[in-house]
């Protein structure tokens, strides 16, 4: 059995495994002068260097801080075309929702993506995902949702599958915006054709719905997510991005893995999440890029909810190619403490994907970890606009040195 003892870790910092709620999100374990034993991609031992078990192979990490790999629980990294004209219009005052209502925005990405082949989509998504990984993301969720029709949705998911040999990806079927005509027929087709097909072919782990005035109603979302559950797929929602129309309450009622966005959530939605096991995933890139109010991260944690953070990497609302930047912005925009932000981006983000085998540097967890450039882990939430991550390890293997993708 090949095992490696990682040594010369100035500080090993980790949350506890599994979903952490409220004040427990601040409970990190910090081990100075640490070592970590890894074999077969799994952590076997962590502790102070002087007590480390003997190992035939040692790897000196050079006296820096080590933290768990980031889990990015929310991306739309597969798209074709661009939204540069939307961006220019928006910064001059045209609202995102108005661009969408006029047939642009998400619908323009759907036209370009619907016309692309699987190979085109793979080539477009690869460098985006490599950028996320170089920023520290060791597991990345990727949604479909820009398919003009069901075949295009499936092509997006096939592109994600093709990239799974290179990166650790979790695919989600996103039911994003309804067609302008025959909406009821479309929802029936999603429930009776698309979801069964995706489940049969094992193309997604979960189904997500955009519950919003310009997208799906609560009742349509409920029907879609019940079909998902009937086919063994987990439920997720995009909700309360612009208007709190009941998506968060539906997520809690259905026991969804997560409800994401929450920029328009108020005390009722915060209370519903605090009383549930659904993870509240916040997306500071959207606040920055669209100028929306920040999701109530501080209130959610103070009320006892489990908060995760994602990039929401997509061309329209969050062109954010760094998971570390999402973590750093959650501290500034959503008022998480640095410790809470680390938990939000690791074990809680994993829980938002239904995973409890990663996100903590503890025996039995996957050996997904980051060696920073500096000896103090707080460089991770502190740094803006440069990459504090020196190297990225997935399953105990070095996969990315920022600036060098391989
Ligand atoms: O998570 N809000 C809906 N969906 C995406 C945006 C997609 C887009 O603008 O292309 C989001 O923000
Ligand atoms: Fe999204």
- The outline comes out as globular
Number of strands: 16
Helical percent range? 25-40%
Number of domains: 2
Specify the structural class.
Answer: alpha/beta
Please tell me how large the radius of gyration is.
Answer: 20 Å
Question: What portion of residues belong to β-strands?
Answer: 15-25%
Tell me about this structure.
- The model has no long low-confidence stretch (mean pLDDT 97).
- The protein folds into two domains: 3-68 and 357-398, Urease, subunit C, domain 1; 71-351, Metal-dependent hydrolases (TIM Barrel).
- The two termini are 26 Å apart.
- The longest helix is centred in the middle third of the chain and has 18 residues, at 183-200.
- The protein is built from 15 helices and 16 strands.
- The protein is globular.
- By secondary structure, the protein is of the alpha/beta class.
- Bound molecules: N-(iminomethyl)-L-glutamic acid and fe (iii) ion.
Q: Which short descriptors sum up this protein?
A:
TIM Barrel; 406 residues; alpha/beta; 15 helices; eight-stranded mixed sheet; binds fe (iii) ion; globular; 2 domains; Urease, subunit C, domain 1
Topology:
Elements: E1 3-14, E2 29-39, E3 42-48, E4 58-68, E5 70-72, H1 84-91, H2 96-101, H3 106-114, H4 118-134, E6 137-143, H5 150-163, E7 169-175, H6 183-200, E8 206-211, H7 218-230, E9 234-239, H8 247-254, E10 258-261, H9 267-274, E11 279-282, H10 284-290, H11 297-303, E12 307-309, H12 323-333, H13 338-345, H14 347-351, E13 369-372, H15 379-382, E14 389-394, E15 397-401, E16 404-405
Parallel strand pairs: 1-4, 5-6, 6-7, 7-8, 8-9, 9-10, 10-11, 11-12
Antiparallel strand pairs: 1-2, 2-3, 4-13, 13-14, 14-15, 15-16
Helix pairs in contact: 4-5, 6-7, 9-11, 10-12, 12-13
Bound molecules: N-(iminomethyl)-L-glutamic acid and fe (iii) ion.
């Amino acid at each position: 059995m090949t095992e490696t003892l990682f040594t010369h870790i100035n500080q090993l910092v980790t949350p506890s495994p599994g979903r952490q709620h409220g004040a427990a999100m601040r409970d990190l374990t910090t081990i100075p002068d640490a070592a970590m034993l890894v074999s077969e991609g799994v952590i076997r031992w962590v502790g102070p260097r002087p007590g480390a078990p003997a190992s035939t192979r040692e790897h000196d990490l050079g006296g820096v801080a080590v933290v768990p790999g980031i889990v990015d629980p929310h991306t739309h990294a597969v798209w074709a075309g661009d939204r540069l004209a939307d961006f220019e219009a928006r910064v001059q005052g045209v609202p995102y929702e108005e661009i969408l209502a006029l047939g642009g925005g998400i619908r323009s990405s759907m036209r370009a993506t619907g016309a692309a082949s699987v190979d085109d989509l793979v080539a477009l998504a690869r460098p985006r995902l490599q950028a996320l990984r170089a920023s520290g993301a060791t597991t990345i969720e990727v949604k479909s949702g820009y398919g003009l029709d069901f075949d295009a949705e499936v092509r997006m998911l096939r592109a994600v599958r093709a990239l799974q040999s290179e990166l650790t990806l979790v695919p989600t079927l996103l039911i994003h915006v309804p067609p302008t005509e025959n909406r009821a027929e479309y929802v029936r087709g999603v429930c009776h054709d698309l979801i069964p097909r995706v489940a049969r072919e094992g193309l997604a782990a979960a189904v997500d719905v955009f519950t919003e005035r310009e997208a799906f109603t609560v009742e349509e979302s409920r029907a879609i997510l019940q079909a998902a559950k009937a086919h063994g797929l987990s439920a997720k929602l995009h909700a309360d991005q612009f208007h709190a129309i009941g998506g968060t309450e539906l997520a809690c009622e259905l026991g969804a893995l997560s409800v994401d966005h929450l920029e328009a959530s108020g005390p009722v939605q915060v209370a519903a999440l605090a009383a549930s096991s659904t993870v509240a995933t916040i997306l500071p890139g959207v606040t920055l890029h669209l100028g929306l109010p920040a999701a109530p991260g501080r209130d959610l944690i103070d009320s006892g909810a489990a908060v995760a953070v994602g990039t929401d990497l997509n061309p329209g609302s969050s062109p954010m190619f760094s998971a570390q930047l999402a973590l750093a912005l959650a501290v500034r925009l959503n008022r998480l403490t640095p410790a809470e932000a680390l938990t939000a981006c690791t074990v809680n983000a994993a829980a938002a994907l239904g995973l409890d085998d990663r996100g903590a540097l503890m025996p039995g967890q996957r050996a997904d970890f980051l060696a920073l450039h500096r000896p103090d882990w707080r460089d991770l939430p502190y740094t803006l606009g440069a990459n504090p991550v020196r190297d990225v390890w997935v399953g105990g293997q070095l996969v990315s040195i920022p600036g060098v993708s391989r």
